[in-house]
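Question thread 4412

I'm putting together a teaching handout and wanted feedback from people who do this every day. The idea is simple: show students a protein as raw sequence, then show them the structure tokens that encode its fold, then repeat with a second protein so they can compare. Below is the first pair exactly as I plan to print it.
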Amino acid sequence: MENFARLLKESWALVEGDRERLSDYFYARLFLLDPDLRKLFPVQMRGQGDRILDAIVAATQAIDDPESFDEYLRALGRDHRKYHVTAGSYATMGIALLDALRTAGGDGWNLEYDQAWRDAYAAISEKMQAGAEADENPPFWHAEVLTHQRYGPDTAVLTVQALQHPLPYRAGQYVSIEVPRYHPRVWRTYSVANAPNDDNILEFHIRTPGAGWVSGALVRRVRPGDLLRIAAPMGGMTLDRASDRDILCVAGGVGLAPIKALVEELITYNRTRWVHVFYGARQADDLYALTGLRELVAVHPWLSVTPACSADPDFDGEQGDISDVVTRYGPWTAHDCFVSGSAAMVRAALRALAADQVPPQHVRYDTFGSL
């Protein structure tokens, strides 16, 4: 297994610098092999390739952790039911993937790499299909937007209600969302910002600093009454109820969403664990959920919230990057740690926790972007 994982990582290092070419060749080959697959993808393919390649890389990097590998791929298979993929689709994708890897690898590609990816993809597709086949839920849920609250030009908090069927998820997980009215067949992932409830209502925190299609629509165009589609939940940033360790939560921007959901779950049962939430942003106006967090602190004595701003000298609170602020309050070696935010923020927080000698198995994280 060690040699197998090494071959996958070596071969990926050979091709990852030419991701655009790899993606273009993969899709060209895929649609040539089966033109009917084209209708499963959005009209504009820009950006689609990186997401599929990210999923493949995440799967191959987890292959030397069998438990994580199995759980991740079964969840990915359930998620891919939204595309209506078949066993034949998986086979065709495998052929296109190997052809694309060989082309991008050029003279550096060898038979050992080829066989490692064949074996890896066979394991990946088998476990994804097993997860899909075992899922008794619908391929996706229709959901109606109930409320939509803007916070400045780029951020919105919205609540939606899943219709017809309950949507089972755990606090800390994420789902993918499609806005069929504006961008059919384009899906983006967002963390659910509230704990599960009997009313089947889900809350989402969305930020669109750029021109992201789905995020832009959710922030600027979607209104109460609009219908969305939501796919199966994924992610393992969830609470271990058997643990008696205190909890550290580090959130940057809309990375607060899964942290808020975890706090809401803790409210239903926690009596003994101290929970410390560090909530960072650049400007005070970006701390859009601070008032609600402080209301929770007033009611639950085991909860504390420490806000910080990295680029607002007038902010009456902690100054600096949230990872640096967390370090000032340590040590955190005896805590269960949860980190969520941008890729840069998560990297910095993970480095800080590692320097604090927090055991890796006590750290769970979610990132909005690639690590």
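The second pair follows. I'd like the answer to focus on this one:
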Amino acid sequence: MLSLMGLRPAEVCGLRWEDVDLEAATIAIANTRTMMGNRYVRVRLYDARSSCLTYLANNGVPDHILARWAGHTNVKTTKKWYVKPDVEDLRGAATTWDGVHGAATEGQA
């Protein structure tokens, strides 16, 4: 669930109960964990993180809020690595292009 909300895998693995404030409905990211024992944890939770950030971006969350949600200081990082266009975004672009292309074709006739 936390990965679907955009947390990094290392943040989810490092979360402790004392970091959770149920009354305030907040969590504090105070620790990260990328190793268990002597082995690195190999987790593909970044796919869920990317889906979360793409969903938020596609539903009108402003860029500066999106970056803050992701824990980034630079909006460009968030948009470059995590916000991916989906099929519906591309369909909208194709419709727009068809309007331009169709108008040019009709004008030539």
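Top answer:
Good format. For the second protein you could add a caption like this: The chain has one domain: 9-108. The chain has five helices and four strands.
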